[in-house]
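User: I'm putting together a teaching handout on how multi-component assemblies are represented. Below are the sequence lines for each component of a complex, exactly as they appear in our records. Could you produce the 3D structure of the whole assembly as structure tokens, so the students can see both representations side by side? Please keep the chain order the same as the input.
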Amino acid sequence: MAVNQKKPSALKDLNLIRTMIRQHKRNDLIFAGLGMFVIASLTITLIILFLDLVLDGYPKFTLDFFSNFPSRRAARAGILSAWVGSSLVLIVTFIVAVPLGIAAGIYLEEYSKKGWLSDIIEINVSNLAGVPSIIYGLLALGLFVYSFGLGQSILTAGLTLALLMLPIVIVSTREAIRAIPVQIREAAYAVGATKWQVVLNHVVQYSYGGILTGVIIGMARAIGETAPLITIGALTFIAFLPPSPVTIDPPFINLDWLNAGFTVLPIQMFNWISRPQHAFHINAAATGAVIIILTVLMNGVAIKLRYNIRKKIKW
Amino acid sequence: MSEPIISARLSKDFQRNIMERFIEFALLCSAAFAVFITSAIVYVLVSEAIPFFQHVSIYEFLTDTVWTPNYSIKHYGILPLISGTLTTTFIALLVAVPLGTITAIYLSEFASHKVRETVKPILELLVGVPTVVFGYFALMLVTPLLQKIYPDLTTFNMLGPGIVMGVMIVPYIASLAEDSMRAVPMAMREGAYAMGATRFQTSVRVITPAAISGIVAAYILAISRAVGETMIVAIAAGQQPNFTFNPVESAATITSYIVSVALGDLEHGGIGYQSIFAAGLTLLVMTLLLNILGHMTRKKFAERY
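Assistant: Of course. Below is the structure of the complete assembly, with chains in the same order as your input.
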């Protein structure tokens, strides 16, 4: 009797279970489709945006655009002062941020002993990475522009971006160094190397690629950074070039350019976006395309470099 | 009596040690520079904001609903800037949280190795796009598109930039959340599969709860990123302080107020100049609290398994 009663209900359960399994498998497929859809639409959005910039700005891709100063007439306006300014600012940023960042990274990974000092430094570095870039602009406005009296100069801008870039360089240096096995260091110590010799001739040598990746990503970010430079009061209309860094007469190097006023590519773009005339928006699109090509190229190189390192080196 | 023979080598060692000490000190100084920057940030913001708060009471600053430091009738209430900041941030999160979470789950649990290795670099490129370019998109592309759906939308509004900002922070959420999902031990996945769970069930009922601290931390850090974002809102949200939470209106955020003031001629030491430091201090406090909360969330549950 008990058996007879159980049979149909077991069959019913089995059918229920089958439906359930089918449902769950369908959910699985739906989610996989959703995931692919989200990722595909993000990628396609990125491509459309990029194409839109290039197509809008296409008429401006002439030599004149790169060799003309900004002008009140959109058709004649160019980005000469902007790209020269960007390059000079980035030179300052590079010279300041890279040695400082690598040195700090080396200290934190190789030298620092566990203790309150290294704790404080670590907390600071990770905090700095999360501080909005405009705050760095306010710091530079109060400190570099007014307290140090450097004015709204290329030097101020370079230092500001260097502060922004510093955490990126520190973090990537540390990650690169951490990947090097301790045996390398021990082998060097075993033949009598000092700590600094170990660091300089071995640790830094082998983590070179990883450090370079971080430096490139940091520089790419510095190219596009706008807000902190506007905050220090960078002018948006510059129709002159800073004095040339190289002179014909000895001593051949001229540092006056550090104190010169400047504009950079993203600020020039921002300025053109804010104007009501459509002709200037075309200029803005062309400038945007230049910025995006530069940053995508640099980021691409960095990503490729990291991929190669990961593939090549097996400790 | 003869001289000891080892002295030459010893003196070299001595030199070497001094050099080593010197280098270590130089490296320490570089690292300590990070502490210097943080202190300098706090010092500059506080020292410039103090004269502001001598002029304006903190009570007025936090409760007045009008912010017009550069007009003839001056009001110093930070609330309109905060409402603008919160509204754009909220819209950005509405976009970024679902998209970012789905991307993270897909990349971590569903995608093949090859797909993952192709998609992650693309996401990184998305992170590399400068924000001024995103601002251009918000103003020239997204807002006109939204105006077709909702014709009353003004040229400057919080909806367009909010959405664009959301797209911008998707990669942050995706990569942070994915990292924490990948950190869940394989055994937990295998356990779920052995019980007959599908991938979707495993992701939602096993992996997500196990990685929840990392995912929540990703959300919090994304909020902090959106609160501090400047150029998108400065370009596309309008720069007029407006105490509203309505996304179709134009409004200024804390960051875009700083930009709009910095663009004008500003007398050093005037109340307008000090007001951007007071606004900056408010922003720093907000992001700092969010970052600390994010790191604590991640640390707190980091070693559960």
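A couple of points students might notice: Chain B touches chain A through 81 residues (CB under 8 Å). Chain B has a mean pLDDT of 86.
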